[in-house]
Amino acid sequence: MPVWMQTAALLCLSNVFMTFAWYGHLKTLNSKPWLIAALLSWGIALFEYLLMVPANRIGYTVLSVGQLKIMQEVITLAIFVPFSVLYMQQPLKLDYLWAGLCLLGAVYFIFRN
User: Which InterPro entries does this entry report, sorted A to Z (predicted)?
Assistant: First the structure.
């Protein structure tokens, strides 16, 4: 499997954990004290880091730091939109499309040679 694909796969998995750590508590723990939500989120974030650190180390063998960052941002939006719509029951807005198009521009500029 190419390095960029290994990196993207690990970053996708990492991002699922990150998204739940950052936003999942808003739905499931909104009646609990913030400290409980923070501690639980840190526990979830541990799994994010256990995937993200190896992803970035693997990716850095062929990608620049800027390329890794833009890849992460694209993956973040790709994970966040379904999470927001399906899990958090938020409406799908055209703003996600516009943000995605802006990120495509970032991908072009960071990956061109």
Answer: DUF486
